[in-house]
Design a protein that fits this description.
Blueprint lengths: L1 H21 L4 H4 L6 H12 L6 H18 L8 H7 L5 H6 L4
Length: 102
């Protein structure tokens, strides 16, 4: 019964907070937080059910938190105009005629 309650609480809580976040911030920012679901489940299992939190789980939790933090870092969103031009494929008529119509 405890496992079912833990699963329901984590799912409802996490998805409820995710939906709340989507209504307040852009989807690309809120979507990173879905990665925290397993972490919250493990923490709740540790606190409520008395499960063990192993060193490998602590490392994994740290990696998940670091990944979410990096994805939300405002410095990673800044792309220069030069980078955008390099990353964007050229599909203009002039470039197609130079490439032989590919």
């Amino acid at each position: 019964m405890g496992s079912a309650l833990s699963g329901v609480a984590v799912s409802l809580g996490a998805y409820g907070l995710f939906n709340w976040a989507i209504s307040r911030v852009p989807a690309n920012q809120a979507s990173a937080f879905v990665n925290l679901l397993p972490l919250f489940a493990a923490v709740q299992a540790f606190m409520v059910l008395g499960e063990t939190f192993t060193p490998i789980q602590m490392v994994a939790a740290s990696l998940v938190l670091a990944g979410v933090w990096i994805s939300q870092d405002s410095r990673t969103d800044q792309v220069s105009d030069e980078d955008a031009v390099i990353a964007a494929p050229s599909t203009s008529a002039a470039s197609l005629s130079r490439e032989g119509g590919r």
